[in-house]
Amino acid sequence: MVYSVKSKMEPPSKKEKVDPQEAQAASYSGTDLELKCVNTIRCLAADMVQKANSGHPGAPMGCAPMAHLLWSSSSSGGAGRKHSARNPEWWNRDRFVLSNGHACALQYVMLHLGGYEDCKMDDLKAFRQVGSTTPGHPENFCTKGVEVCTGPLGQGISNAVGMAIAAKHLGAAFNTADFPNIIDSKTYVICGDGCLQEGISGEACSLAGHLGLGDLVVLYDDNHITIDGDTDLAFTEDVKMRYEAYGWQVLTVDDVANGLDGLRAAIDEAKNTADRPTLIKVRTDIGYGSPAKQGKASSHGAPLGDAEIEAVKGKLYGMDPAKKFSVDDDVAAYYKQQAEEGEKAMAEWDATFAKYSEAHPDKAAELTRRFNRELPDGVYDDLPTFVFGKDSAKATRKFSEACLNAVAPKARELVGGSADLTGSNCCAIKGEPDFQRATPEGRMIRFGVREHAMSAICNGMFAYGGLRPFCATFLQFAGYALGAMRCSALSRFGVLYIMTHDSIGLGEDGPTHQPVEMLESLRSMPNMNVCRAADANEMAAAYQIAMDSVHTPTVVCCTRGTVSPLEHSCRTKAMSGGYVVLPEGGEGAPDLVIVATGSEVGPSVDAAKALGSEHSIRTRVVSMPCQEVFLAQDAEYRASVLPGNVPTLSVEASSEYGWHRFSHGQIGMTRYGMSGPASELFEKYGFGKGNIASKGRELVEFYKNVPVPDLNARPTFVNFSGEGH
Fold first, then answer.
1. Is residue 656 annotated as a catalytic residue, yes or no?
2. Which of 75, 398, 563, 704 is 20 to 30 A away from residue 249, measured at CA?
3. Model confidence over 21-45: pLDDT tens digits?
4. 3 state SS of 87
């Protein structure tokens, strides 16, 4: 359906000399105050970018009408979006995501007008400055009222799919016949052409259509402009037909410059459509109001210029060219009233939740625990313990499956699934139904072959609250998901990533599927735990690390093939990230230290025993399931495990990079893998007992003639100054 402005007055004849502001008001079909509010948004955004001498004024100026309705109550003819400046974390607020995050001046302006404490006028004036709460793209950890980090295009709309999934699942789990609206929030998005060009959005929106997420409403800023110029350069598809093919309702609004009745009607229809998500295709003009730059790429990513902004204000109704960062009293009063409506909605919900707590105390307590991100009592009690000599050896992916199913019955906030590899990833929660259109209470999500969207959707689920999402694929395919995984780390979202088939040990599928650089790529991300367990005890530690790390995502890397049983592995010690799994025996320092992870720990233990029995080389083996956790320990503990001044050999079937800080010599991957049985590949690439022992002996012999560099005897510099967010 196409919505148009129902009626408008004819502007004065061009022959008449008229005031341009009066001409705009005359051609506008809404109230003067409404037009003034929209123009205030436009000009504030332009002022912010100009003062910063950096940013994107065009999209905020074009999208201002959409933002106005999204921040207006139903009684004022707006979308009626529920939110609270006093409590931005209110559980049942309607979420808003600005997917085209470069337009963040728009969001900060609306947060300011809505009374949010992090966006006072001085904060708007500090746009894009170091330490401000108005950074260059939205950051959830920096600005209250911002749900997720957006800017990498396509991430935000994909996060929003996760939010809609979370709302639907939590509503199914906690709403009751007598209290049907405890969780009934909607998710609103503004996105642009760039978001819809990114492949991740297609992946996520395809899944959203399949799931029938009716509480997801996307306003598409169809301004026909990208950085390079008109979208005709590269983007000529029929977006409407594509989204209808996904299973979405698509509505078209062809004009918001001359009135908002069409957009109001479209939003109302979207809100009343329960069986599918809605895309509202809104035709806008980038840089609206700029005499020289409206509708042009030049308004996208650079300040308009002082003279041009004065011209804009001279043209737009209600604006004063002489004023900067100005909000007139009537505009401020309007948005204050809208904010009060939001506070009223929250107060009514609080009263309802109090009654719900009396009627359903167990459900209320569980919901409270989840949104407080607290773990249930005894959540780790059933984690498995491997008994050497009794329990059978398995692949670590099977140990991961056991740990997931040990934690999930108590931590019912664990919701997730695989990118079409559930059986291979061993990530099914036993006895739990799928999350589908007809069964939203289900905890298993079938993401399909959509690794990038899967990760971004999990970010949205975490951001919503009340859930700890997990997702799974082969470790090599983390490459598809890295953009969203980086956002997990940046956003401080404790998503659990289960990544199996973690080395050449996956065997016959060959180098296209065998990760080489992926572990180091992930380890190089700040605020990302990467765990590679060697057995069931270490896997239990990995799950405890992951669940305890509420604000740090964790990648649990798992083998496809069986790993060797370890006699001295220990979950408690593995919680330190690295520990001595085979002591060297005897008196004094060891002659050699071997540090290994995952499937390479077993052969390293065998090699150490051979070195001791055949060459009298007293060898310590250290298992390091998580470098990040180990590096967080104090220096005394780290030195007790890795002395630094003893010849040390690292062994990992992955890139050597990153191991130089821990070892003097490395056995690692310096080329891609091959197709063949895993056992043969491990031998060919040097990860068998024989080569490990041989290289260990060579390392000891080498350092008989030269001093052993003490890897712990070096300074650690702190280069960041001041405080960060």
1. no
2. 75
3. 999 999 999 999 999 999 999 999 9
4. coil
416 bridge partner residues: 444, 470
- Determine whether 296 is exposed, middle or buried from the number of CB atoms within 10 Å of its CB (0-12, 13-18, 19+): middle
Distance CA 123, CA 173 (A): 40
Dihedral of CA atoms 228, 230, 235, 240 in degrees, nearest 10, equals: 140
Cα 452 to Cα 444, 493, 557, distances in angstroms: 18, 16, 18
Per-residue pLDDT at 14: 54
* Residues 221, 106: Cα–Cα separation, whole Å: 13
Please state whether 48 falls in left (phi above 0), alpha (psi between -120 and 50) or beta: alpha
**Whole-number mean pLDDT of the chain?**
97
Residue for token pair 């997931």: 404
| C-alpha to C-alpha distance for 471 and 435, rounded to whole angstroms | 14
Annotate 188-198 with b (16+ C-beta within 10 A) or e (fewer): bbbbbbbbbbb
Q: Could you tell me how far CA 155 lies from the centroid of its own chain?
A: 8
Separation of alpha carbons 580 and 66, rounded Å:
60
The candidate with the shortest Cα–Cα distance to 517, out of 684, 672, 692, is 672
Q: How far apart are CA 351 and CA 353, in angstroms?
A: 5
Name 499's bridge partners.
473, 557
Element (H, E) at 263: helix 261-271
H or E element that contains 316 = none
CA distance 497 to 522: 11
CA 105 from chain centre, in angstroms, equals 21
CA 356, 361, 362, 368 dihedral sign is: positive
Task: Return the closest-CA partner of residue 331 out of 53, 569, 109, 532.
Answer: 109
Residues in the chain: 725
Span 588-600, pLDDT tens digits: 999 999 999 999 9
- Using pLDDT thresholds of 50, 70 and 90, give the confidence band for residue 2: confident
Amino acid at 527: N
Among 34, 401, 451, 600, the one annotated catalytic: 451
For residue 9, name the pLDDT band (cuts at 50, 70, 90): very low
DSSP, res 298: G
* Confidence band for 11, pLDDT divided at 50, 70 and 90: low
Specify the pTM.
0.97
